Amino acid sequence: MSQPSSLSQFWIYLSECTRLLYWAYFKPFTFQRWLADIYPELSPTDNPFSKQQEFAQNPPLRRYAYQVWWLSLTVPFLTVLLVAPIYSMASGEPFNGLRSSLILLGWTIGLLLARSNSQKREQWFYGVLIILAIIVFLFQVISRFTPEAEALRQSLFSSPLFSALLFVICGVTSAVVSSMAFSVASGVILGVALSVALGVASNIRGCVASCVTLDVGSFVAFSIAFSIVLRVELNVVLRLAFGVVSGVASGVASGVAFGVAFGIGVGIASSVGFGIALGVALGVASIIGVLRVYFWIPELFGSLALFLFSRQRSPSKTLPYLPPRFDELIYLPLPFLDTLIIESYPENPAAARQTIDYLITSTNQQQLAANAIVGIALTTLDRCQTITDIVAISDELNWIPSPPPKQLGEILPNFLEISQTVRATQSATTAYRRIELLQKPIAALGEIQNRLAFNRNPFLATSFGSITQRWLQILQTACRTLTEAAEKSGEILQPYIAGSALDPDDAKSRFKGRQDLFRQIENLSLSPQPPILLLYGGRRTGKTSTLKYLPQKVGADLVPGV
Questions:
Q1: pTM of the prediction?
Q2: Is the link from the previous residue into 403 a cis peptide, with omega within 30 of 0?
Q3: Burial class (CB in 10 A: 0-12, 13-18, 19+), 312
Q4: How far is CA 110 from CA 77, 115, 119, 179, 421, in A?
Q5: Which of 270, 409, 421, 544 sits between 20 and 30 A of 236, alpha carbons compared?
Q6: CA-to-CA distance for 451 and 200, rounded, in angstroms?
Q7: Are 20 and 30 in contact, with CB atoms under 8 Å apart?
Q8: Which secondary-structure segment (H or E) carries 482?
Q9: Can you give the pLDDT of all 562 residues of the chain as single tens digits?
Q10: How many angstroms separate the CA atoms of 63 and 16, rounded?
Q11: For residue 545, which of 491, 507, 494, 519 has the smallest C-alpha distance?
Q12: What does residue 185 show for φ and ψ, rounded to 5 degrees?
């Protein structure tokens, strides 16, 4: 077999890198499962170069590590090349390519340092940065109160060489800090954000411009110190902001806290008012990032388009194109998705069930899956019009997980049990026997009605109330039909049934005969001095049943003992 050419190998490698980038943002659960096959102890947010000793024995791990590194290196460059002309044409002002290049230069140096994964070198690097940050910060504070220091600061910060050095250091720091979590998502997005944001910063008027262009030292010094102090928290926020984990509430809180703290910190170095304004701005940006609003907007329009398409065509044809098929992390609600699944179930149950299984096992849309299950269950139960439909329910809905979604409460299992009981009645040998067996599900439906009447959940009461009433009517009609059929056939009901003793609460009117015995007991009990009576007879002649029915046949003041 011939080996693939170098060009084909390059395209394979490029497609794998593109797939990793797509997985990092849209398919984190798929990403995690794929990575577990390569190295179970490694997560998408771990630095794969920490496992360099395994590279020789595990070529896929080595390939993955370098693919992540190349993505973190090249995507910011490509993004700047794409954004720069678009920004220039849209704003009419030039993109600051020099500043972005300095950031990207530092970013490249930082990624090279991170790839070595040397703990000793990392400690040395952070030590130097801490010292540098302290010096720059103290110099900033002193310059506020000393005219000579302020003049020196203005002269120093206006030096192109010094400003360039600060931007390179900022890029190096960001790359090394992001590499601690070395995830594709956090690494790429931080590099892109720095290079693009500072590329357009010189053209932004107002408070942001005053921070970036006039007080670069304060901004860079604080960003270095804050990144070092909150190195772990920074990566957590990045992972939350770009969807590598699924805690929405904690992600929003962390994002806002990070944004506000960063802004206030910069405000300490420059001006408090600006710090608060920047903090609020970063907090809002963090919320947008955590909730993935920039992805949700096109997904919203996609959902609307699928719904409109389903009005004209088969709803089941839309299932392969639902947004969760392409994005496993969708935090904001999308309309009509559960409706499309519910409407698809009658025409293609297999496709609807496969979609629900996918939502449960491969996305964060468990609530959407639960809503679809509830809708399918209610629609299926409400569709029953005959006793045959009721019998089929236990097979149609046996795929619903146990316990069912909380919206169904404990009601759905009762309906499935009733369906199975009604199925058993179809095997009865006589019409009268089927009538007797139907009394149990009829009684069960009556109990459900009583429970729903006092249920505090209006959804359960309204949804299942009409279904319960319809099922009762179907079973009661079936009983009347069976009774008429039995009478026309001339079948004689057998009143005596061998088995356990009859209980008045269950058997009701099934106890027959014994009137002469009850008459004698009544006469003796009404005598001036009623005796203690002993009921004696052979086995299985009805002694226990007689004693249980005694209070109903003679009087409640008689106390039988078995």
A1: 0.69
A2: yes
A3: exposed
A4: 15, 9, 14, 9, 70
A5: 270
A6: 65
A7: no
A8: helix 458-489
A9: 556 678 888 899 999 999 988 998 889 899 989 999 999 888 887 778 878 888 889 999 999 989 988 888 888 888 888 888 887 888 777 887 887 888 788 878 877 877 766 666 666 666 766 776 677 667 667 766 777 666 666 666 666 666 677 667 766 766 666 665 445 666 666 667 666 666 765 544 333 333 333 344 444 444 444 443 333 333 333 343 333 333 333 333 444 444 444 444 444 444 444 445 545 555 565 667 677 888 899 999 999 999 999 998 889 999 999 999 999 989 899 999 999 999 999 999 999 999 999 999 999 999 999 999 999 999 999 999 999 999 999 889 989 888 888 877 778 888 999 999 888 888 776 777 788 888 889 999 999 888 888 777 787 788 888 899 999 999 999 888 888 877 776 655 555 555 556 565 565 565 566 667 767 776 766 666 666 666 666 666 666 666 666 666 565 556 666 5
A10: 10
A11: 507
A12: -65, -50
- Cα distance between residue 133 and residue 124, in whole Å: 14
Strands (E), 291-424: none
Pair 215, 141: CB distance under 8 Å: no
Residue 546's identity, in one-letter code, is T
C-alpha–C-alpha distance, residues 241 and 227, integer Å? 16
Note the residue count of the chain. Answer: 562
Please say whether the dihedral angle defined by the alpha carbons of residues 498, 500, 504 and 507, taken in this order, is positive or negative.
Answer: negative
> Which is nearest to 414 in space by CA: 367, 131, 95, 422?
422
Asked if 473 and 414 count as a contact pair (C-beta separation under 8 A), the reply is no
| Residue among 500, 374, 482 at smallest CA distance from 429 | 482
Question: Do the Cβ atoms of 267 and 278 come closer than 8 Å?
Answer: yes
Phi, psi of 521, deg, nearest 5: -65, -40
Residue whose C-alpha is closest to residue 109's, from 160, 179, 189? 179
Two tokens, residue 382: 């409400």
What's the token pair of residue 478? 């079936």
CB atoms within 10 A of CB 538: 6
What amino acid is encoded at 116 in this protein?
Answer: S
DSSP secondary structure string for all residues of 245-281? S--HHHHHHHHHHHHHHHHHHHHHHS-HHHHHHHHHH
The secondary structure of 168-212 as a DSSP string is HHHHHHHHHHHHTT--HHHHHHHHHHHHHHHHHHTT--SHHHHHH
Pair 483, 435: CB distance under 8 Å: yes
**Structure tokens, 71:** 């993505």
CB 229 within 8 A of CB 113: no
**E strands present in 230-382:** none
What CA–CA distances, in Å, run from 251 to 290, 291, 409?
6, 9, 31
Q: 560 in helix, strand or coil?
A: coil
Contact 490, 484 (CB under 8 A): no
- For Cα atoms 259, 260, 262, give the angle at the middle one, nearest 5 degrees: 65
Residue 154 CB-half CA count within 13 A: 6
Helices 337-344 and 366-382 cross at an angle (nearest 10°) of 40
